[in-house]
Design a protein that fits this description.
Elements lengths: L9 E4 L13 E7 L4 E4 L5 H9 L1 H7 L6 H12 L5 E6 L5 E11 L4 E8 L8 H15 L5 E7 L3 H9 L3 E12 L2 E11 H6 L14
Parallel strand pairs: 6-7
Antiparallel strand pairs: 1-2, 2-3, 3-4, 4-5, 5-6, 7-9, 8-9
Length: 215
């Protein structure tokens, strides 16, 4: 990728993911970026990627995903893309390799609130990409949209997600006790949020100040 502004469109190839998913001839238009990552808008053709990531046992356990067929995942992706209250992105490496899915959901412009959902390819976890992706998305939420609050929920035992949210500046506001059922057990959900004034106080560089390949 070339070093352009965060909102400047540029086209990159997928590259060949380690698990063999994806099309090396496919081109994606980059619409946003962060530290060493970029965003491209999710497309119905990404259903196979989403299906593969959702089927990973680690993701299934930590996120609590319900097993679905590829056709059902494709229908869900298409439905989400028609939802005007959310924006979905594929997270990319600088060479165009897809490494995850991130979304800004439940956007309420009147109240100024939205929520974050993130899912990473297991091969790229534990390398800082989750925090980079969340940082980039909150920069989009607060830098380009009139939002005041971005929140996220996760199992209180999901240490990887909790670490990402903490590094991104989110504060835990409370716990929804026994709020979900997964693998025969009830689980608590932690509610975390980042407010606009807290984002403004962060000392890190913003997405629009970073070169595409920044580490």
């Amino acid at each position: 990728m070339t070093d352009t502004g965060a909102g400047t469109e540029e086209t990159v190839g997928d590259g060949e993911p380690e698990d063999g998913h994806g099309d090396t001839e496919r081109l994606r238009t980059v619409c946003w970026r962060g530290r060493g990552i970029a965003f491209a808008a999710l497309d119905p053709d990404d259903a196979e990627l989403i299906h593969a990531w959702r089927s990973d046992p680690v993701i299934a356990h930590e996120v609590g995903t319900w097993p679905r067929s590829l056709s059902a995942v494709r229908e869900r992706v298409e439905s989400d893309l028609e939802n005007g209250d959310r924006d979905d992105f594929v997270v990319l490496l600088p060479d165009g390799t897809p490494l995850g899915h991130i979304a800004l959901t439940g956007q309420d412009i009147v109240d100024g609130s939205a929520a974050i959902a993130l899912m990473l390819d297991p091969a790229h976890r534990g390398q800082g990409y989750g925090t980079a992706a969340v940082d980039a998305l909150v920069d989009l939420a607060f830098g380009e949209l009139p939002l005041h609050r971005v929140e996220a929920e996760t199992h209180t035992t999901n240490t990887a997600a909790l670490g990402v949210l903490a590094k991104a500046g989110f504060a835990q506001e409370g716990v929804r006790r026994s709020a979900c059922m997964h693998r025969g057990r009830r689980h608590d959900l932690g509610l975390h949020a980042l407010l606009r004034e807290e984002w403004e106080a962060l000392t890190r560089a913003r997405s629009w100040d970073l070169p595409v390949t920044a580490g």
